[in-house]
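user: can you give me the structure for this one chain? tokens are fine.
assistant: on it. calling the predictor now.
[tool input]
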Amino acid sequence: MYAFTLEKPTTLADAAKLAAAGAKPLAGGQTLLASMKLRLSAPEQLADLGGVKELAGIKKDGNTLVIGAMTRHVDVGSNADVKAAYPALAWLADHIGDRQVRAMGTIGGSLANNDPAACYPSAVLASGATVVTNQREIAADDFFQGLFTTALQEGELITAVRFPLPKRAAYEKLRQKASNFPLVGVFIAQFDSGVRVAVTGAGNGVFRHGALEAALSKSFTPQAAEGVKIDASDLNSDLHASADYRANLISVLTQRAVTQALG
């Protein structure tokens, strides 16, 4: 690591001032600290958000679930309100990485980093959730902008994520065993207005699959998902899996997710 200073704000206002002045926000540190150890990132100042209590917590507000940005994965996965109101989201949080990652990682940090194979972005995009920052509210469809890129401006901090509660939902993934990231993950959420399907791990970032959404909005069955041809032309191909294999995984995992959602 290179030398840096560590600030520990205790209020959102103080954290925002530090971020605006150029300090790098430190949430769970699961990506940032590893990058710093490898000298791939060299911020001169960090603002540790762990002491900002107003950024953590979970509450159910009518037909919406609000999760603070600094809420740890383990707390989302074990929270009674999440497990009752949105069990697919609780399952996702409870199966991110390993125990150490779940104990330290946060939803806000995951979304701000926007790793192309992260689990949380698929839940946020499939849910049509709203990312709340210290400056504005950003719809999920506008938030994710490609590889490690989001709509966040310099110095802007995520404060919470607001999830509308679906009628049914499920998340299925095939874990890449070396990294524990999903080789492919598919999150489906059914609302009165239709079905949203978000895919992670298969492309240059999380994305919605329009053909699967159309088919499942018409008929919420595994057979409807199976009938959709998945185009592999824009999917990743690497040492772990070919684009064609990932295309097949999208189909298989979507069918499994529908079966899971139907109970």
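assistant: here you go. DSSP finds twelve helices and twelve strands in the chain. Residues 168-262 form a domain with the Enolase-like; domain 1 fold (CATH 3.30.390.50).
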